[in-house]
Amino acid sequence: MWYVQIYKLQNDGSQTVLATAHLSGDIVTFEGDQKFIDFVTNEGIQNYSDDSGKKLFPKDGILFLEQLQYNFKSGYLNASEVKER
User: What's the pLDDT score for residue 51?
Assistant: First the structure.
């Protein structure tokens, strides 16, 4: 199973997993902070693999999963690369 973890930086410098995204068949499902999950699934994420300007949503499957690491790359939120369990 392919997955990505989204980490949040804590005030003490440690990181905690905010959410985990899993590829389930052809769609991405999440476990974790419901507020974050609702935001990502409703608003979508930017597709940095092309210049179309089209947002990606969990229904876009592996492409959505792959693009998480480029959308959450800051001092406070980071996403891992796609990994396989």
Answer: 85
- Residues 16-66: tens digit of each pLDDT: 999 999 999 999 999 999 999 999 999 999 999 988 889 999 999 999 999
Q: Domain span at residue 22?
A: 2-84
Close Cβ partners of 59 (under 8 Å, ≥ 6 residues apart): 26, 27
Q: What confidence score (pLDDT) does residue 26 get?
A: 95
- Euclidean distance between CA atoms 55 and 63, whole angstroms: 11
Q: What angle do CA 80, 31, 58 make, to 5 degrees?
A: 75
Beta bridge partners of 8: 16, 77
Helices (H) and strands (E) in the chain, counts: 2, 7
Rounded to whole angstroms, the Cα distance separating 60 from 4 reads: 15
Q: Which two tokens stand for residue 3?
A: 């997955």
How many domains does one find in the chain?
1
